[in-house]
Design a protein that fits this description.
Blueprint: E1 16-23, H1 32-43, H2 53-79, H3 86-106, E2 110-116, H4 123-132, E3 135-142, H5 149-163, E4 171-174, H6 182-199, E5 204-210, H7 214-218, H8 223-238, E6 245-250, H9 263-269, E7 277-281, H10 290-306, E8 311-315, H11 322-336, H12 340-354
Parallel strand pairs: 1-2, 1-3, 3-4, 5-6, 5-7, 7-8
Helix pairs in contact: 1-2, 3-11, 6-8, 9-10
Bound molecules: the ligand C=CC1=C(C)c2cc3[nH]c(cc4nc(cc5[nH]c(cc1n2)c(C)c5CCC(=O)O)C(CCC(=O)O)=C4C)c(C)c3C=C and fe (ii) ion (FE2) (2 copies).
One fe (ii) ion (FE2) binds at residues 210, 251.
Subcellular location: Cytoplasm
EC number: 4.98.1.1
Catalytic activity: Fe-coproporphyrin III + 2 H(+) = coproporphyrin III + Fe(2+); heme b + 2 H(+) = protoporphyrin IX + Fe(2+)
């Protein structure tokens, strides 16, 4: 049979709404043996590395995969917790909290799950189990606030690739970005304000985003523009002047030019310009991970202090904060508007309330 059937389908099954949150993915363990297949899958994605396959294959398999896994394993080991990879356990917590929030409003008509673009739980496995639970309408929410082909479009590719193998595909809504969503900006602003309440302000608020090759921007990727818009809106919400914040780009990979200014160069230069205290926030990361905990929390702190800086603070990602879960819930609500299932569920919920049901 060419196309897969939906497992566990029965005619009496009621249609469910599915909410699938996704993130990038993480290795199974902080060892070079686990890093190799993870990096191979990640760096073989043509959305991530836009270099012709016949050139990239040799560089990746003969050079990078012989060097990088060992180096990255060391970095991962430094952030690994008893619960495993931070990205994995935070994403699990986000999923649980979002499921509880959705159940509050929609009861058991909604199925919430999470998947990782690379590694596990894989997008196709999770879609399979959601469809088996009767999901006929699916909202995919990649937890990347700023659209980027390397992340957002790559996630869409994985969902679409799964659908090409299925006989009966669900209705689909795919959230491509939420970089200027008022709830998201407010949640970020509240996180920074809470930090100020505890520690006071610094000379500069650095907003650091994951970088991409500059070539992707020149070829039309809106990512750079969306990062700057998030920064401007966050600065406005915090009442910061242009001299009190900056936007920088971190996590360079390879030799070509990436988006500038680079976070590491900035940290090395700021003390010499009289900026002796900084607070760093990473609005593009919805969950803390290697790139925030180690690269921003440790590595860049060292650069800043070694260059004469006096105070360096990293402000954590929104993670599973209740306000962040509410941001996700609102994105779900905005995206299910108009779906018949919504009307059924709301009607049923109102009816239950009117009858004084306690469930
Ligand atoms: C060509 C390389 C890369 C591009 C383009 C890229 C874009 C990009 N990545 C994220 C988010 C994350 N990246 C993470 C790790 C990571 N990223 C790259 C390379 C590119 N990323 C590598 C090789 C790695 C692995 C770690 C390492 O070896 O340095 C992570 C962390 C995952 C974790 O497990 O903690 C995240 C998150 C975004 C948002 C993005 C483009 C906008
Ligand atoms: Fe990355
Ligand atoms: Fe990094």
């Amino acid at each position: 049979m060419k196309y897969k059937s939906n497992a566990g389908f029965s005619h009496s099954q009621s249609d469910k709404l599915g909410v699938l949150i996704t993130n990038l993915g993480t290795p199974e363990s902080p060892t070079s043996g686990a890093l190799r297949p993870y990096l191979k899958q990640f760096l073989s994605d043509p959305r991530v590395v836009e270099v012709p396959k016949f050139i990239w294959w040799g560089i990746l398999n003969l050079v990078i995969l012989n060097i990088r896994p060992k180096r990255s394993a060391k970095a991962y080991a430094s952030v690994w917790t008893d619960d495993g990879s931070p990205l994995m356990h935070i994403t699990k917590a986000q999923c649980q909290a979002l499921a509880a929030r959705c159940a509050q409003t929609y009861g058991d008509d909604v199925v919430v799950d999470f998947a990782m673009r690379y590694g596990n739980p894989a997008v196709d496995d999770v879609i399979e189990r959601m469809l088996a639970k009767g999901v006929r309408k699916l909202i995919v929410l990649p937890l990347y606030p700023q659209y980027c082909a390397s992340t957002t479009a790559s996630t869409f590719d994985a969902v679409a690739a799964d659908f090409t193998k299925r006989r009966w595909i669900p209705e689909l809504r795919f959230v491509t970005h939420y970089h200027d969503d008022p709830g998201y900006i407010q949640a970020l602003a509240n996180k920074v304000r809470a930090h100020w309440d505890e520690r006071g302000k610094a000379d500069m608020l650095v907003m650091s985003y994951h970088g991409i090759p500059k070539r992707y921007l020149l070829n039309g990727d809106p990512y750079h523009c969306e990062c700057h818009k998030t920064s401007r809106l966050l600065a406005e919400a915090l009442g910061l002047q242009e001299t009190q914040y900056m936007t920088t780009f971190q996590s360079r990979f390879g030799r070509e030019e990436w988006l500038q200014p680079y976070t590491d160069f900035t940290m090395k230069a700021l003390p010499g310009k009289g900026v002796k205290s900084v607070q760093v926030v990473c609005p593009g990361f919805s969950a803390d991970c290697l790139e925030t905990i180690e690269e921003i929390g440790e590595e860049n702190r060292e650069y800043f202090m070694a260059a004469g800086g006096e105070r360096y603070e990293y402000i954590e990602a929104l993670n599973s904060d209740p306000e962040h879960i509410e941001v996700m819930f609102n994105l779900v609500e905005q995206n299910l508007s108009g779906w018949r299932i919504e009307k059924n569920m709301i009607t049923r919920q109102r009816l239950a309330q009117a009858l004084g049901a306690t469930e």
